[in-house]
Specification:
41 residues
Length: 41
């Protein structure tokens, strides 16, 4: 059953990475949009 635990652990790590990436994306997107609108203005 060790391999099962390893798979779950790897899956959780990937999920954490994706969640962190989504949080970063949600945080950075408004900043990038603001800069683009300032640049266009």
């Amino acid at each position: 059953m060790v391999w099962c635990t390893e798979i779950i652990r790897a899956y959780v790590e990937e999920f954490e990475k994706i969640r962190t990436f989504k949080l970063l994306l949600a945080y950075l997107t408004p900043i990038v949009n603001e800069r683009q609108t300032i640049r266009h203005a």
